[in-house]
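Hypothesis: this fold can be encoded by more than one sequence.
Test: take the structure tokens below, design a sequence, compare later.
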């Protein structure tokens, strides 16, 4: 490019051919492209080896950001997404019983005489285990483990993409821009989060109502098919507004807070990032603060997404109506029901994520060199 500019500055003519590789590699599905290349491959060993090398390079896509003369390190996208998925699945299985307790506490409404099914987080866990057993504590976990991969992919890639495009010309990322990048990632992930949470909540809360004994045996596929039949695809997006409020606010708080906490800690010898325990603690602290901050939205989302109510439970017309009724009948403390559970869920999730990234689990599985 520099040579071209020098030639043009000297007044000499120049011919240039513009090749839009984006159409060949980003728009066309890679599997179709690989099949076409295989179909036209020469039978000679030299051409075959050359094509194989090209194919190997094709599947090792990486992204690099350049601002002026400053370039970042190559960051492979696939290992990052795989690590996020592994961390999500491991974290989900590890803390799911606590998440189930959180859902039941948030859905529990106090009766006219102050009666309630669960007195505390521990009481809820004991009663659930006693009446529904070990499997009951993991009701709805399969839905989470199935959809956690696309959710993490959208969140991680979305945040990185927004952070890249929101940087200033000098390469800086101000706090408002960091917050906007996190909010953008939260906005995008809702496309997967809403149906995932909707199905999960029905299964988690099914055993709470004694008036509906058959509800505990319901399947996620049955609920999904019934919603699609009765209300179409939008049936799976019940409570999407409340989910947007929660996830946008959570990501807007978490990502900038984690980045700043991680930046002030002890650095590695190569000065390319924080040491492991700093990233681990930053992830746990940021996740806890962000989760507690958005707990009121999570309570509203849980109640709006619960399809089958227990006997005596109130119904809500929307987000505003839910806020008003909860405040009127249960007080402001109700907005923080399950808050401790949510912090106990979120903090380990992000701590596990940092551990998976540090160990380079995806790199080991896929055969990529580990990037410290």
């Amino acid at each position: 490019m520099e040579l071209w500019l020098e030639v043009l500055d000297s007044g000499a003519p120049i011919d240039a051919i513009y090749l839009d590789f984006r159409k060949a590699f980003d728009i066309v599905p890679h599997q179709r492209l690989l099949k076409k290349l295989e179909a036209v491959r020469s039978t000679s060993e030299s051409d075959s080896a050359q094509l194989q090398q090209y194919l190997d390079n094709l599947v090792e896509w990486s992204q690099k950001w350049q601002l002026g003369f400053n370039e970042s390190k190559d960051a492979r996208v696939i290992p990052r997404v795989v690590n996020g998925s592994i961390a999500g699945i491991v974290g989900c299985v590890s803390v799911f019983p606590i998440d189930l307790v959180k859902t039941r506490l948030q859905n529990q409404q106090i009766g006219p005489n102050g009666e309630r099914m669960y007195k505390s987080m521990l009481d809820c866990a004991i009663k659930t285990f006693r009446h529904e057993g070990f499997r009951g504590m993991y009701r709805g976990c399969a839905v989470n483990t199935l959809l956690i991969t696309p959710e993490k992919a959208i969140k991680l890639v979305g945040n990185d993409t927004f952070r890249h495009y929101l940087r200033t010309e000098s390469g800086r990322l101000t706090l408002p821009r960091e917050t906007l990048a996190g909010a953008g990632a939260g906005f995008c992930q809702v496309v997967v989060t809403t149906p995932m949470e909707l199905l999960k909540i029905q299964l988690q809360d099914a055993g709470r109502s004694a008036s509906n004994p058959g509800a505990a045996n319901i399947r996620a596929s049955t609920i999904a098919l019934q919603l699609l039949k009765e209300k179409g695809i939008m049936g799976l997006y019940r409570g999407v507004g409340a989910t947007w409020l929660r996830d946008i606010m959570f990501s807007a708080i978490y990502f900038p807070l984690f980045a700043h906490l991680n930046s002030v800690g002890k650095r590695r010898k190569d000065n390319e990032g924080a040491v492991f325990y700093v990233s681990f603690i930053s992830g746990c602290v940021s996740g806890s603060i962000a989760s507690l901050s958005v707990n009121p939205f999570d309570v509203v989302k849980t109640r709006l997404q619960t399809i089958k109510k227990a006997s005596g439970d109130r119904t809500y017309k929307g987000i505003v109506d839910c806020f008003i009724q909860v405040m009127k009948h249960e007080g402001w403390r109700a907005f923080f029901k399950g808050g401790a559970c949510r912090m106990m869920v979120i903090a380990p999730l992000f701590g596990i994520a940092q551990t998976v990234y540090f160990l380079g689990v995806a790199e080991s599985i896929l055969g990529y060199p580990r990037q410290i």
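The mean pLDDT is 79. DSSP finds 15 helices and four strands in the chain.
Hypothesis status: open.
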